[in-house]
Amino acid sequence: MNLTVVICHYKENLDWVERLVHNHVVYNKNQEKRDYFKYNLDNYGFDTIAYITYVVDNYDSLPDYICFSQDNPFYHCGNFLEKVNNFDFKTEYLPLGATYFRDNAQIIDKSINYAKEIGLEITLPIKFINSAQCIVSKNLILKNDLELYKKILNSYHKNKVITDLNYTIEYLWPSIFHFNNELNISLTNCQ
After folding, report:
1. Of 96, 115, 126, 133, which sits most exposed with the smallest number of CB within 10 A?
2. Residue 66 and residue 135 in contact, taking contact as beta carbons nearer than 8 Å
């Protein structure tokens, strides 16, 4: 079994990646650092744009598991390295941050409407993980066809980092990967 850590980078120090025992890929969104990285993206969308880009670009050759991570994963998961490096490959997903219910009616409506727009079936309540940081199996990722991920990728508002849509995609992350119903709500996932 293999795991690749997909990191969305903008400005944080990446020295910690040297302590990863798994492969990693960095998607850089900082225009001033384009010469330092193999994969560069324009700076729009949240971290999820890097994650979805990786899935789209590697759909036919995904590793067994993908860890989706910010460039400072410790903000949401203090023991991130321990959790990732010691992942046991026995579960289909692992949240790497606190998990919550989305209970704001306006946010729920936006999420439902967006899911319908891209053809994603969701169930309520909507649960989410801070910054969408998690490990997800290839099996769960491949439950959606490539076209769904392309729709998500093409739906981001270009040239805007912060939009309601970016939050919506983050809120729907467990739904996109088919573990919303099983996800436990906990503020202590990383303790």
Report:
1. 115
2. yes
The Cα–Cα gap between 91 and 87 comes to 9
Burial 110-129 (b: 16+ CB within 10 A, else e): bbbebbeebebebeeebbbb
Domain contains 191: no
Tell me the chain's radius of gyration from C-alpha atoms: 16
137: tokens are: 């199996």
Sequence-ordered list of residues with C-beta below 8 angstroms from that of 87, at least 6 positions apart, any chain? 3, 65, 67, 94, 135
Residue 27 lies in a domain: yes
Q: Give CA 64 to chain center in angstroms.
A: 16
pLDDT at residue 118 greater than cutoff 90: yes
- Does residue 64 fall inside a structural domain? yes
Exposed, middle or buried, 43 (CB in 10 Å: 0-12/13-18/19+)?
middle
Q: How many domains does the chain have?
A: 1
Q: Please give the residue range of the domain that contains residue 66.
A: 3-176
Q: What is the distance between the alpha carbons of residues 104 and 171, in angstroms, rounded to a whole number?
A: 12
